[in-house]
Write a structure and sequence with these properties.
alpha/beta, four-stranded antiparallel sheet, 37% helix, 7 helices, single chain, 10 strands, Rossmann fold, six-stranded mixed sheet
Length: 247
Amino acid sequence: MALVLDGLCKRFDNSEKDTLHEIDLEVKTGEFVCIVGASGCGKSTLLNLVAGLERPSQGKVLLDGEEVIKPGADRTVMFQEHGLFPWLSVLENVKFGMRMAGFSKEEQDKKARHYLEMVKLWDYRDYPIHQISGGMRQRTALARSLTMESKVLLMDEPFSALDKQTSNRLREELQRIWMETKQTILFITHSVEEAVYLADRVVVLSPDSGKVAEIVTVELPRPRHVYAPEFVELRHRILEEVRGEAV
């Protein structure tokens, strides 16, 4: 068991009700879990609590039995914005987190090459960030996140700012990478299609109550295909649940 949310509640000072209310969830080691729900349901707040960027009003987050009280190297966060340094090359951006964490130069070189090859960017390693596309920047950010080899990778709508074609291509890349690495991932998305494509389980949050409305196990074989009848049926069912909760 990697990650446990135990009775998790969050109420902000300017609100009269909980954004998140009594969230109970277990994410097993190597599992890919997606969180979906209408705007304002608390998806990003949940991720910030797991990351240690916010403190819960009640309940707790446990990672391998240890309570999360602040950010740590055992959790890596990848946001919508890639957060890359424009004055560094692709390679130096990927090495940056490892350098700050005190990895040896040999480790930095080895891991950077391994993960840049995994995201198919090794040939672009010396390019400045401003010379590569938006999709390549997100792949660089993904490689940087993977090099830390943390217990949990937290992803907050990392593809939502990209065009549809690029986003779809990166979903395929992420699915392939997860199948290779079995990295534990908690992934926030507003796209039900994206969630069904990527997840072992899809967690639907209710914007009204701040609770978990439903947890759906996705038993479709991988790699998945968005036009397969079983995929379309499951996507439609979860989408109806999300719409129902929004109403």
